[in-house]
Amino acid sequence: MLIDHSNSRVLEVLPSRDKQTLVAWLRAARDSGLLGVLEEVTTDMWDGYVEAVKEVFGPRVRITIDRPGSSTPINLSLTRARIHSRAVRLATMLEGNVGYVELFGFSQATARELQRAVDSLRTAGMRALVLDLRYNPGGLLDEGVSVAELFLDQGQAIVATRGRAPDANRVLSDRGAQRYTGMPLVVLVNGASASASEIVAGALQDHDRALVVGTTTYGKGLVQSVYPLSSQTGNEVVLKLTTARWFTPSGRSIQRTPQNRAAETVADARDPEEELSAAARDTADARRVYRSDAGRVMRGGGGIVPDLVVRPDSGVIAAREALTRALDSNVVRYTDAIAAFALDTRARRMVSSPLFAVTAAMREDFLARLRQRNVRLDEATLRTAWPFIEQQLGAQTARFTFGRTGEVRRLSGGGDPVLAEALRLAQAARSQSELLSLAAARNPAGETARAGQP
Question: Residue 2's CB: how many other CB atoms inside 10 A?
């Protein structure tokens, strides 16, 4: 959960996969709107609020929530407790008996949770798997290694560290037999996949065990050692030094090191779903050719470069940017209108499948809700922005009506071009080698693919 404050009130925002929407929400919330208020805490006690909600267990806390689609505030009394945040956010079956698992973070139980999810899907008839590591920031190294071990053979290298000190150089390898031999596997990544996510994706790619699809990962591959300088209670001082770097089994450095400040600025500012520009990746290591166990060409330069780079539809990008400019500070009202539309559509049982079409009547209904909230879009903006608005209406309504499973099923039909391409390839492949061959035929020159291309 993200926590922010505005206008003497406390704002809580659930994590969002859409970076632009989340940033716009936070900006708009500084001028209007809120999602949650703690009665006993004011903004003068900002640090106290964070502790009151997250760190003190047992005592009850009263919360008032303004929920999109609800005309009156909702009062709740909650008992604070420590909860386990599951790494497997969703495990479901898509068309063609292709399983989909969305993994977030690498905590102590991640490998065990993933194994249970995959076993359950295989029992239900899954023959291929899409493992989604997009927006996964990483976590514990041991769990990253354990996740890779589920799909690799005993003795295969997973990750190596290299540093100046002799004890900084080591190789971590698979310690047991592979659990899912022969099952076609696609791993999805983007610019927000980091650390342990990159270790997993890199190891599976190097050993030809997974087809990696999406955009180049973040490039976080430093090993840091902490040295205490003072142990005085309440005044501890430590020195944190970078002592080594992580490398994939083929020798690719996971750490991204731009050649200059300008390239670093461009890389840091990119949308995670957009690919790094050629200029931002122009380093000696990026020009070097690495090869997988089967001889497939892979590129260095930091991060994990996918086997198949899939970029968002340019029309949807233009639509999103036009809408963001037009809404300005009205993002909260716009999002409220989408939520109200989705809730009302569910209540009236207007759709029977997550793959429903957004009709002309639905369009007029939504535009009327915008006008009720004093949000007006001129005809030119509406023509440009409608593809993105339609996508949001469909996804939100599918989620409210059919749950996250329904939303993912809808997105796999084209709303999420990376998932759609991965699903298409996984459905067609009968083995991992065939999956890699299909991807190579789809992109023989290693060029960037854009959504919507044949």
Answer: 12
User: Is the dihedral angle over the CA atoms 139, 142, 144, 146 positive or is it negative?
Assistant: negative
Residues of the chain with pLDDT under 50: 1-49, 56, 447-454
Residue ranges of alpha helices (H) inside 124-260 are: 141-149, 196-206
Q: Judge whether 119 and 146 are in contact, CB under 8 Å.
A: no
**Any idea where the domains of the chain sit in the sequence?**
2-79, 88-306, 314-417
Query: Pick from 127, 123, 92, 208: which is nearest to 430 by CA?
Result: 127
Identify the DSSP state of 31.
T
pLDDT of the residue at 313: 82
User: At 237, is the secondary structure helix, strand, or coil?
Assistant: strand
390 and 384 in contact (C-beta within 8 Å)? no
Q: What is the pLDDT of residue 292?
A: 97
Q: Check if CATH label 3.90.226.10 holds for domain 88-306.
A: yes
Q: Name the nearest CA neighbour of 375 among 414, 339, 413, 334.
A: 334
> What is the spatial distance between Cα 34 and Cα 211, in angstroms, rounded to a whole number?
42
Distances (CA, A) of 71 to 65, 67, 152, 375: 11, 8, 53, 18
The β-bridge partners of 240 are 226
Eight-state DSSP code of residue 168: G
To the nearest 10 degrees (0 to 180), the angle between helices 379-410 and 360-372 is 110
The per-residue pLDDT for 121 is 98
Angstrom distance (rounded) from CA 5 to CA 19? 19
